[in-house]
Amino acid sequence: MTDYGFGKLNLPASLISPVKTHPEWKISDAPVAYPEALALMEARAAAIAEGSASEMVWLLEHPPIYTAGTSANDADLIDARFPVYRTGRGGQFTYHGPGQRVGYAMLDLKQRNPDVRAYVQDLEQWLIEALALFNVKGERREGRVGIWVQRGMKEDKIAALGVRIKRWVTFHGVALNVDPDLSHFTGIVPCGVKAHGVTSLADLGIMVTMTDVDVALKQSFKKIFG
């Protein structure tokens, strides 16, 4: 696992809570800087592993950035027009920015199901179920990470996922394109896939608010993760 060099963090009071069966939900209205989000995830995951905090699902947006997972190929960074962060999550290059709902899940797999493959499949199903609430058919594709929609003869990616697990506690998670600037994706080869494009709910003609998306993500999360 990557050491991000944050050292020992003093947890804010808001991060310290009794262990509960159901995750705490945190929603950030303003964009959150990536280093700040990473530090909070690291701290919360460590606290969950130690038994001093409950699980958390955090819904947020980032300012425009590119992140590189552990499998990233530098050739896939075409135009570093935004800050680039190397991260310990799985996967390749992806974009985060306004109009994209990021869902970071800090869950204790020891108390759930200590099966990494099953967890990734659950994340995929979480996105599929949330999209279904907007009458969008999200699909998996063999050999391609993320959730895809069929658009006539082509397929476009509407959601991405990348995870890291430390001491059986998960962090990082999913990113659903609601209404981002799709031109921002052209600075990278998203997830290393050159043959297909990227879409969003708005690009599909589905105009919803971020609050609508949050409600759908909460509802579908409970269906998949209990």
Q: Give the DSSP E fraction (strand runs of 2 or more residues).
A: 25-35%
Mean pLDDT: 89
Structural class: alpha/beta
Helix content: 10-25%
Low-confidence stretches: 1-20
Radius of gyration: 17 Å
> Whole-Å distance between the termini?
28 Å
- What about the largest sheet? 8 strands, mixed
Q: Label the overall shape.
A: globular
Supply the number of helical segments: 3
The number of strands is 11
What is the chain-wise order of helices and strands?
EHEEEEEHEEEEEH
What do you see in this structure?
With 226 residues, the protein is an alpha/beta fold. It is 22% helix and 27% strand. The chain contains 3 helices and 11 strands. Strands 1, 2, 6, 7, 8, 9, 10 and 11 form an 8-stranded mixed sheet that branches. The protein is globular.
At a glance:
By secondary structure, the chain is of the alpha/beta class.
Q: How would you summarize the topology of this molecule?
A:
Elements: E1 24-27, H1 34-50, E2 56-60, E3 65-68, E4 84-86, E5 93-96, E6 100-106, H2 116-132, E7 139-141, E8 144-151, E9 154-166, E10 169-177, E11 197-198, H3 210-225
Parallel strand pairs: 1-2, 3-4, 9-11
Antiparallel strand pairs: 2-6, 3-5, 6-10, 7-8, 8-9, 9-10
Helix pairs in contact: 2-3
Short descriptors:
single chain; 226 residues; alpha/beta; three-stranded mixed β-sheet; 11 strands
